[in-house]
Design goal:
This protein is of the alpha+beta class. Helices cover 55% and strands 18% of the residues. The relative contact order is 0.18. The protein has 13 helices and twelve strands. Helix 2 packs antiparallel against helix 9 and helix 2 crosses helix 11. The chain folds into two domains: 183 residues, no CATH class; 179 residues, no CATH class.
Length: 406
C-alpha cells in the first residue's frame, strides 16, 4: 500500500470517531495555545520594557554613590555623600566620550497652588537633563544656566502637576507654586510621557535648577546621582571607563581600592531586564508545556483503545498482505494527524488570544514567529513518540488470533 492510500485510510479512521478524536486533540489545543500565549506575553513584556527604557535614551549613563563599609557594616548607597560639585566640574572639563551631563538632587513632598495640592518629586538638574532623558518642552521654555548660577526659584513641570493644581488644559506659565514653603515660578510644561511599565506616572514631576534644590529645598552639598549621555550607544563602555578614571582620581582611590561609586548604562539595564523576562518566560512556558505531556499521554491511551477495537480489521489487512511495518505506519500517521490538527487549532487559538484577549487585560503581547514553528514541530514529535507504542502493538499482532478476535 502506498503512502497516499495510508493517509486516506488514516484520515477516514480519525473522521469516523469525531468526538473521540476531538477529545484527544483538546489537550494539544490547550497546551499549544497556552505555550504561545506565555511566549507572547513574555516577548511583549520584553519589547515593552526595552521601548520604555529607550525613551530615556539608549546612551544614558547614571553615576550613583557606591555602598561603603564602616565599622564592618555596609552602608546604604543612598546615604553616601561621595558625589560632589568637584566631580561634576571635573567631568565637564575632561569628558571626551560624554556629551551632556547633569547633577541630580531629588526631594519628595507636597506642592501647593492656591487651595490645590498634590504629592510629587522635585528633580534638581541642569538644563542638559532634558536632552539626556529625551524630554520635550511643550509650552514655555526650560530654565537656563544663569538660573542655575543664581539658584533661581523657577521650574519646569509635567502634565500631571498642571492638571492637579490648575485644571485640565490650563496655562500655568508664569504662575507660582510652593514646594516645602519655597515659591517656584513655572517657566515651562513638559510634553506628556504617561505611565511607564512599572505603573509610575512620568508626568508627575517638577524639574528645577540643581542649585535651587540643593540650597533652598534639600539643604545639602552632595548629589544623589549624576546622569550623562555617551556620544553614541556604541561608545557607552568607553564613556564608563573614562568616567571611572576621572572619579577614581578625583576621589584619590589608588591600586586595589574599591570604587565608592557605581556607573550603570541604559544598555546594561536593558540587558538585565531582558534576561529577567527571558527567565520568567521560560518558567511560564515550561509550566504550560506540561499540559502537552499530559495531552501526549491522552493520545497514546486513545490510540491503544483504537488498536484494541480494530483488532479484527488489523488481522484482515495482514491476511491480505499488509506487513507489520505498513500497519505500524498507518497508526503512526493517525497519531500525527490527531496531534497536528490539535496543534494547528491550538496555534490559531493562541494567536487569537494573544492579539485580542491578552491586551484587553492591559498586558503587552507579541507573538514571536519562531514560537509557531516550534509548536508545529513539537506536535509532530508528540504524535510520533506517543503513537509509537500503539503502532507497535498493532504491528506485532498475530493475524490468525486477530481475525478470531471478537
Amino acid at each position: 500500500m502506498n503512502i497516499l492510500n495510508l493517509f486516506k485510510v488514516s484520515i477516514n479512521a480519525v473522521a469516523n470517531n469525531k468526538m473521540r478524536s476531538f477529545l484527544s486533540m483538546l489537550g494539544i489545543i490547550i497546551g499549544v495555545a497556552a505555550v504561545i500565549i506565555m511566549m507572547a506575553i513574555g516577548q511583549g513584556s520584553k519589547e515593552s520594557i526595552r521601548k520604555e527604557l529607550s525613551t530615556m535614551g539608549t546612551n544614558l549613563l547614571t553615576i550613583r554613590p557606591g555602598a561603603d563599609m564602616r565599622g564592618g557594616v555596609r552602608q546604604d548607597p543612598s546615604s553616601m555623600q561621595t558625589l560632589k560639585m568637584a566631580d561634576y566640574q571635573r567631568i565637564m572639563a575632561e569628558k571626551k566620550y560624554v556629551t551632556n551631563v547633569s547633577p541630580e538632587v531629588t526631594s519628595g513632598g507636597q506642592v501647593i497652588y492656591g487651595n490645590n495640592n498634590t504629592n510629587t518629586t522635585v528633580y534638581g538638574e541642569s538644563p542638559e537633563y532634558l536632552d539626556i532623558k529625551l524630554w520635550t518642552i511643550e509650552r514655555g521654555d526650560c530654565f537656563t544656566e544663569e538660573d542655575v548660577h543664581k539658584a533661581a526659584k523657577v521650574a519646569v513641570v509635567g502634565k500631571t502637576i498642571v492638571t492637579e493644581l490648575f485644571g485640565e488644559g490650563a496655562d500655568p506659565i508664569g504662575k507660582t507654586i510652593r514646594f516645602k514653603s519655597i515659591p517656584m515660578r513655572i517657566v515651562g510644561v513638559l510634553k506628556s510621557k504617561g505611565y511607564n511599565n512599572w505603573g509610575m506616572d512620568q508626568d508627575n514631576v517638577i524639574i528645577a535648577p540643581y542649585t535651587t534644590v540643593m540650597k533652598r529645598i534639600a539643604a545639602q552639598t552632595y548629589f544623589s546621582s549624576i546622569v550623562c549621555s555617551a556620544i553614541t550607544e556604541e561608545l557607552s563602555d568607553a564613556a564608563i571607563e573614562e568616567l571611572t578614571q576621572i572619579l577614581r582620581e578625583n576621589h584619590k582611590l589608588k591600586g586595589e581600592a574599591a570604587d565608592d561609586f557605581t556607573i550603570r548604562s541604559q544598555a546594561e539595564m536593558m540587558e538585565t531586564m531582558s534576561s529577567t523576562m527571558d527567565t520568567v518566560t521560560l518558567i511560564l512556558v515550561v509550566a504550560a508545556a506540561f499540559s502537552l505531556l499530559v495531552a501526549g499521554i491522552g493520545i497514546m491511551n486513545i490510540m491503544l483503545v483504537s488498536v484494541t477495537e480494530r483488532t479484527k480489521e488489523i488481522g484482515l489487512r495482514m491476511a491480505v498482505g499488509a506487513t507489520g511495518a505498513v500497519i505500524s505506519l498507518q497508526f503512526l500517521i493517525e497519531s500525527v494527524i490527531i496531534s497536528l490538527t490539535g496543534g494547528l487549532l491550538g496555534i490559531l487559538l493562541g494567536i487569537s488570544a494573544s492579539q485580542w484577549i491578552v491586551p484587553a487585560f492591559g498586558m503587552p503581547s507579541s507573538v514571536p514567529a519562531w514560537s509557531i514553528y516550534v509548536s508545529f514541530l513539537v506536535c509532530v514529535i508528540i504524535g510520533v513518540l506517543f503513537g509509537y507504542i500503539p503502532a507497535q502493538k498493532a504491528a506485532n499482532m498475530d493475524p490468525i488470533e486477530a481475525i478470531r478476535h471478537e
